Amino acid sequence: xxxxxxxxxxxxxxxxxxxxxxxxxxxxxxxxxxxxxxxxxxxxxxxxxxxxxxxxxxxxxxxxxxxxxxxxxxxxxxxxxxxxxxxxxxxxxxxxxxxxxxxxxxxxxxxxxxxxxxxxxxxxxxxxxxxxxxxxxxxxxxxxxxxxxxxxxxxxxxxxxxxxxxxxxxxxxxxxxxxxxxxxxxxxxxxxxxxxxxxxxxxxxxxxxxxxxxxxxxxxxxxxxxxxxxxxxxxxxxxxxxxxxxxxxxxxxxxxxxxxxxxxxxxxxxxxxxxxxxxxxxxxxxxxxxxxxxxxxxxxxxxxxxxxxxxxxxxxxxxxxxxxxxxxxxxxxxxxxxxxxxxxxxxxxxxxxxxxxxxxxxxxxxxxxxxxxxxxxxxxxxxxxxxxxxx
Length: 391
Known about the structure:
- Helices cover 70% and strands 0% of the residues.
- It contains 16 helices and no strands.
- Helix 9 runs antiparallel to helix 10.
- The two termini are 46 Å apart.
C-alpha cells in the first residue's frame, strides 16, 4: 500500500492531513550546523525540481504545485506580518507584536509542514521516487548553506535547479544525469562533513573551550569548506562540457550572478538603456540600430563576466587555504566596468538618433520613472528563468 497513490486517490484536499503523521518521520530534520542559517522560502522551482527528481505523475505534479502555492502564500503572510510589526515597533517605539525569533519559528513551521505534505505525495514503495526525494532534500540543504556568510564564501551552485528551470529533462541526457548524480553524491558528502565541523566549532565556542581548541576546530572547518567550494567549481566546469545549450546557459547565469547583478540580467534593464528605449516615436530604422548596439554591448558584458569568473575559479582551484581563495576583485569594481561599457554604448546610440529623436530623448524621465522592475518572490531564481526562457 503506497502512500503516494492513496494520497492522490482520496483527493488533494484531504490527503495531506491523512498522511502528515506518517510523513513526519520521513522528512529529514535540518542538518547539524545549519541552525543559524535562515529559512529558504518555498518557491516555484522547488515544485519543478521535486517533480523532476521523482519523475512525478501528472496527479503528483499537480498536488506538489498546489502545496507549494499554498506554502508560498503562507510564508508571504508571515513575512508581511513581521514587516508590519517591525514598522510599527520602529514608528511607535512599542513592543513588537512579532519578534524576529517568532518570525523564524513560523517560517520554519511552514517549511516543515510543506516538506511533510510533499513527502506524503511521494510513492514510498517506489525506490526511484524515494531516491528522488533524497536528492530534493539535499538540494534544500545546499540552498541553506549557499551564502556561508561567516566565511565570506558562496556555495550557490545548484546545477539540478538550473537544468530544471532551463527545461532540460535529465532522462534525455543519460551521461549528463550520471555525472550530475555523481557530483551531487560526492559534493553533498563533503558538504555534510563541513556542516559537522561547523556544529563542532559552534559547540566549542558556546562551551567557552580554550582558544587552542576553538582555533583547531575553526581551521578544520575552513579546510572542509574549501573542499566544498572547489568541488562546486569542478562540478560546474565538468557539467558545462556535456550539458545542452539551454543547460549551459542556465548554469552560467547562476554562477555569473555571484559576481554582479549584470551577470544574470539583460543590459536592457540598465537605467541608461531603459531611458534610451523609452524614447517616444523611435523609427524602425533607429530602433534596429539601437538593438544592434545593445547586442554588441551584451556580448561585451558577457565576455567581461566570463573572464572574471575564469580568474575567480582558477584562483579557487589553486588555493591551498581558504584565505588564498578570496576573490581578487570586488563586485563594485566590476559594476563600474559595466557602467563604463554601458555609457560608451549609450554615446554610440545617441549618435544614431535623428534630431527629433534627440529632442524626445531629452524629455525622457529618469529610469525609475520609465517603468518599474517586475520582481517575483514566487521564484528563487526569477532572473534565471526569465533569461533562459526569453533569450
